[in-house]
Amino acid sequence: MKRETHEREDDSIERLCAVLSELDGHPVAVTSREGKHGGCDAIVTRGDSRVAVEHTRVHTTRARPGHVRVLEQITPPISDRVLAAFPKEWILVLVPVEKIETGTDWGAVCERIAAEVIAAVPGIKREQGLKIDLPGLFQIVAFRHQPHGSKGYCWVKWWTRSDEERQKIVDDVSAAIRRKRPKLIAYRTDGYRTLLLLDAEEAGWPAQFINAFAEVIEHEPLDAFDEVYLACTGLLPIMFVPLKLGAVVMPKPAELQEFWNAEKRVMAARGEWA
User: Fold this and answer.
1) In this structure, are 111 and 242 located in the same domain?
2) What is the number of domains present in the chain?
3) Is 274 within a domain?
4) Do residues 231 and 148 both lie within one domain?
5) pLDDT tens digit string along 212-237?
6) Which domain holds residue 107?
7) How many other CB atoms sit within 10 Å of the CB of residue 10?
8) Are residues 95 and 187 in the same domain?
9) What is the three-class DSSP state of 38?
10) Which of 195, 138, 206 is nearest to 169 (CA)?
11) Measured over all CA atoms, what is the biggest interatomic distance in the chain, rounded to whole angstroms?
């Protein structure tokens, strides 16, 4: 179900606070919401620090009502079929929705997509994806996440491949950094730490945004931000990718293990995996 911007903002910030609380071993909590009064979106208390948080949306696609309806129609049959085959796996299926034409036999297309994904999954390593050609139709991607517990998930998301859309992601991330920099610099001057939360509801494949961030920071300074996170709000539960942690930009997987473990513990405590 599509959430309004303010609900996504609240959900993302609250969720990140929960993960940081688990990571730090003491409460991290929102103490005020200043956005309505011209300030930052939230002030968070983290240990002895006050953290100014700015949340902003970044996008992958120009949503078209017809395409959204198609995605809503194809998701259940693909997801149900894949989960029936792999009830404990976490699988992401990316589909170029705009290429499913009016009058298409959706049932047949869904069955073909599901069958190809099911055939491919055993050969995909965890945390890797595979592009799959469907001759006569289009190309899809199957991504196999590391599962957390016994409950399986299968997400179906919109995938766009054009250079125009790739550039749009880069432009959105760049604009977000430029737009939020002055406000958070002002808070830093007042003694706050600063945190930027990039909300990508349409993030079918977070690598699109990670790659865009890596490209953007070649020309956009990050001096205003102590921490930067990508919030994958298209996934439920919401999951995060740390992009900057203090002086460490683009942390390596080994540097993120404690964060990911904290995230898993939050999920376990909330019954999101067993």
Assistant:
1) no
2) 2
3) no
4) no
5) 999 999 999 999 999 999 998 766 67
6) 65-159
7) 17
8) no
9) coil
10) 206
11) 60
Q: CA 62, CA 53: separation in Å to the nearest integer? A: 27
8-state DSSP, 224: T
**Residue 265, H or E segment:** helix 257-269
Rounded to an integer, the average pLDDT of 91-110 is 87
168 and 230 together in one domain: yes
Last residue of a domain, one of 142, 159, 176: 159
Q: What is the pTM of this model?
A: 0.73
- The answer to whether residues 56 and 73 belong to one domain is no
56, containing H or E segment: strand 49-57
Classify strands 28-32 and 42-46 as parallel, antiparallel or unpaired. antiparallel
Domain assignment of residue 260, yes or no: yes
pLDDT tens, position by position, 13-55: 999 999 999 999 999 999 998 765 568 999 999 999 999 999 9
* Count of alpha carbons within 13 angstroms of residue 106, beta-carbon side: 15
CATH of the domain at 234: 3.40.1350
Phi, psi angle pair for 212, to nearest 5°: -65, -45
Question: pLDDT value at position 47?
Answer: 93
- What pLDDT does 66 receive? 67
Confidence of residue 62 (pLDDT cuts 50, 70, 90): low
CB 120 within 8 A of CB 132: yes
Are 69 and 134 members of one domain? yes
pLDDT band at 129 (very low <50, low <70, confident <90, very high): confident
Q: Residues 6 or more apart from 75 whose CB is under 8 A from it?
A: 156
